[in-house]
Specification:
The chain is mainly alpha-helical. The protein has one domain. Helix content is 69%, strand content 0%. The chain has 5 helices and no strands. Helix 1 crosses helix 5, helix 2 packs across helix 3 and helix 3 crosses helix 4. The longest helix is centred in the C-terminal third of the chain and has 35 residues. The chain starts with 9 loop residues before the first helix and ends with a helix. The model has no long low-confidence stretch (mean pLDDT 89).
Amino acid sequence: MERESRRFDGSAWYLREMDRRTRAALKRQEDQAEAAIAGEDDVVLLARVRERAEALGHAPQMNEVPGARAIAERLGGWPRVLRRLGYTAPEGTPKLSRSRRYREEYARQQELYREEKRRKAEKRVKRKKNACREK
């Protein structure tokens, strides 16, 4: 049986890697927010949601607010949280990858990746220079 050879698609790998890093970073943010929310009272939780809504300029979806799942559980559901703040719940839930929070984190991860890549290249150059000096 002959193995099928496939060419490496660097751009597809890059997109998958940035998505993986972005989702991991958002998961860490979510975990940190849920830990912070555990000790806060309802007024502070509502203030968190209000601040995010003002930053976005619209009633936020759950995936647009860090810790929203924990807030919704404590306060009786996301539509109820939004009603308490005077907002109407938006229709449907957009994909995480289309949310502003995801796009902002994606851009941040791209910048971190570029910096990491630059540092690795500098280390390679230094190793090559040191290897040439030793010869």
